[in-house]
Design brief:
It is built from 15 helices and 15 strands. The protein is an alpha/beta fold and 375 residues long. It has two domains: 9-206 and 331-374, 3-Layer(aba) Sandwich (Rossmann fold); 244-314, 2-Layer Sandwich (formyl-coa transferase, domain 3). A hairpin with a 3-residue loop joins strand 8 and strand 9 (158-159). Helix 1 packs across helix 7 (166-189) and helix 7 packs across helix 8.
C-alpha cells in the first residue's frame, strides 16, 4: 500500500532525539530517509546504554527505523562533496548542528538552495540562531531553564524533570509539522523554504495553560505535584492498593464520581457544588474521596468508574501500560524483520492511523558500518 509521503527523499543530518524523531515519523509515512552518520561511531545514541537489546542501544532503536545509514566524514572534501550530492537529490534536509556548522561544511541553506530551489530545509537548535546560538541544547537543561521543572514535582520533592526527554519529542513534532506545511507551500508554488524550530520556543509553547497564566496575568505558576491549578478533583488519589488518577473535570462528572463511590451527597455539599468551590476546598474534598476510595483497589475503581463515564485510571508501569493498549486493540508494538539480525526488532508503533495511507515498517534501524564497510 502506498504511503502518504512515497516519493519524498529526506537527508537526515540529525543526531540524538528531536531531529531523528521527526525524520522517523516522515519515514513511517513512506519517505525515503538517508541518515548521515559520522565515521567514529555514528549517532551518539548508538553508545547510550544500558539498556541494550542484542548489543544495540534501545535509545537508538527508538527513533531510527525505516532509514538507511550513510557514513560520511564531513571534515573531508570528499565527504562534503558526497553530502552536497545527496542534498541535491533530496526534497527535505533536516539538521540539528549548532548554528553555523552546516555553513562551514558548505551545506547551509543559502549554499544549497541555489541548486535545489524546491528544497525544504529544517534546522533544529536549542535556543535559536540569534543570541543563544552558541548554547548547547540538551533536554534536561531545557526542562530547567524553560520552566517545565518549575511546575513539575511538589513542594516536598522540589523541581523535577519529566521522565522522558519531552522537550526533544515536542520539538520533533513541531519540526514535522513545519516540514509538512512547507511541502504544502512547495506543492502550490514550487518554492522551498527554511524551517527553523528550537527547543526553547517549543518548550514555552508546550507549557500552554501554565505559560498563558504568566503571559496574561503576570502570575508565576508553582509546582502542585499531581494536582491541577484550576480543576478539582483532577489529581492522583489513594486507594486500597495503588494510586488512582481521577479527572472529574466538570460538575456532571463529579456527580457521577461521588455516586459511584457511594457518596452522592457530596455533590450537594456547598463546598463541592461547583468546580470553583471544589478548588477552594480541595483539601477537604480529597479527604472525603480518599476515605471512600481506600475501601477497594485501584483496578476495582477503574472498572466501576470508567463504566460510569468518569475519566480515571491507575498509575501503570510501562508493562501495564502496554498491556492495556493491547487489550484496547491499539496494537502498540510491531516486529520488524531484518535479514542482518537474528531476531526481529521490536518497536513502538507509529501513533497515527490513516484509512488510505497507513504507516509502514519497511526496514529496522540501520546497523552501523565502519567507513571501509560503508564503501
Amino acid at each position: 500500500m502506498t504511503g502518504a509521503l512515497d516519493g519524498l527523499r529526506v537527508a537526515d543530518f540529525g543526531r540524538v532525539l528531536a531531529a531523528p524523531y521527526a525524520t522517523m515519523l516522515l519515514a513511517d509515512l513512506g519517505a525515503e530517509v538517508v541518515k548521515v552518520e559520522r565515521p567514529d561511531g555514528g549517532d551518539e545514541t548508538r553508545s547510550w546504554g544500558p539498556p541494550w537489546s542484542a548489543g544495540e542501544s534501545t535509545y537508538f532503536l527508538s527513533v531510527n527505523r525505516n532509514k538507511t545509514s550513510l557514513v560520511l566524514d564531513l571534515g573531508t572534501g570528499a565527504g562534503r562533496a558526497e553530502a552536497r550530492g545527496l542534498v541535491a537529490s533530496c526534497d527535505v534536509v533536516v539538521e540539528n548542528f549548532r548554528t553555523g556548522t552546516m555553513e562551514r561544511f558548505g551545506l547551509g541553506y543559502d549554499d544549497v538552495r541555489t541548486t535545489n530551489p524546491g528544497l525544504v530545509y529544517c534546522s533544529v537548535t536549542g535556543f535559536g540562531p540569534h543570541a543563544g546560538a552558541e548554547l548547547p541544547g540538551y533536554d534536561l537543561v531545557m526542562q530547567a531553564v524553560g520552566g517545565l521543572m518549575s511546575v513539575t514535582g511538589s513542594a516536598e520533592s522540589g523541581p523535577t524533570k519529566v521522565g522522558v526527554a519531552l522537550v526533544d519529542v515536542v520539538t520533533g513534532l513541531h519540526a514535522t509539522a513545519g516540514i509538512l506545511a512547507a511541502l504544502r507551500h512547495r506543492d502550490r508554488t514550487g518554492e522551498g523554504q527554511r524551517v527553523e524550530v528550537n527547543l526553547m520556543s517549543s518548550m514555552l509553547s508546550a507549557l500552554t495553560n501554565q505559560a498563558s497564566t504568566f503571559v496574561a496575568t503576570g502570575q508565576v505558576p508553582t509546582p502542585m505535584g499531581n494536582r491541577h491549578p484550576s480543576i478539582a478533583p483532577y489529581e492522583v488519589l489513594a486507594t486500597a492498593d495503588r494510586p488512582l488518577a481521577v479527572a472529574a473535570a466538570n460538575d456532571r462528572l463529579f456527580a457521577r464520581l461521588v455516586s459511584g463511590l457511594g457518596r452522592p451527597e457530596l455533590s450537594d455539599d456547598a463546598r463541592f457544588r461547583t468546580n470553583t468551590s471544589r478548588v477552594a476546598h480541595r483539601g477537604a474534598l480529597v479527604g472525603e474521596l480518599e476515605e471512600a476510595l481506600r475501601q477497594e483497589s485501584a483496578d476495582h475503581w477503574f472498572e466501576l468508574l470508567s463504566g460510569l463515564g468518569v475519566p480515571c485510571g491507575p498509575i501503570n508501569d510501562l508493562a501495564q501500560a502496554f498491556a492495556l493498549a493491547e487489550r484496547l486493540g491499539l496494537e502498540p508494538v510491531v516486529d520488524i524483520e531484518d535479514p542482518d539480525r537474528t531476531d526481529p526488532v521490536r518497536s513502538v508503533a507509529h501513533p497515527i492511523s490513516f484509512s488510505a495511507t497507513p504507516a509502514s515498517y519497511r526496514v529496522a534501524p540501520p546497523l552501523f558500518l565502519a567507513p571501509a564497510e560503508a564503501r
